[in-house]
Amino acid sequence: MEFHPGRMLGIVLGLVILASIFLLPFGTTNTQTLYGSAGPLISNLGGVQASGTATATFDYILVIAFVLLIIAGLVGLFPLGTGVLGIVGMAMITVAPYAVFPNGPVKLDPGTGFYVIWAASVLSLGASFWHGKRKEAVAGVNVNVSQTMTTGATSQLDVKCPKCGNMNPSGALTCSKCGSDLPKTM
User: Fold this and answer.
1) Which helix H or strand E contains 91, and what residues bound it?
2) What is the DSSP string of 9-73?
């Protein structure tokens, strides 16, 4: 695994997402962090289901988005995963109030944490494509060159094939023309 600049930026942005979830206010009127909003719901999922209130669907969406954002922050080593999970989680939080309650009791109230997590998620997705300058691998190349010099006369080192009469270089085991075995020379 290579630590290119995009991977390092992904780690930083994953930490930014985690810090924003636990430290920055997620809304403007409700200054709780995302953890402050989703934490009580997670610890009381049975109560949310039993309540049967109209906001139960939104509460479940908030919990799922919270879990996705936590995972997005933890997988910062993989900026593509951080970006995709972060964008999906934030899209759920952004769209849910309008999809579940078009004119209802839950309205989107974005605060600092909301915008920071959106920005970190989008930047992380972009960072996944930043690989920096690639080092070109230098491959070692071995070249063996052999040179044969021929003259009009045959050398004493050449071997004549007993089957086809072709002249073969000294040390050859088989004839280069017909493939038959050559006599051993000394």
Assistant:
1) helix 79-100
2) HHHHHHHHHHHHHHHS-S-SSS---HHHHHHHHHHTHHHHHHH--TTHHHHHHHHHHHHHHHHHH
Q: Is the pTM here over 0.70, yes or no?
A: no
Read off the pLDDT of residues 19-46 as tens digits, 9 standing for 90 and up: 999 999 988 888 899 999 899 999 988 8
Domain parsing of the chain, residue ranges: 5-127, 157-186
Do residues 85 and 120 touch, judged by C-beta distance below 8 A? no
Contacts of 115 (CB under 8 A, 6+ apart): none
Helix axes 5-23, 112-127, angle to 10 degrees: 160
Which of 57, 52, 68, 178 lies closest to 121, judged by CA? 68
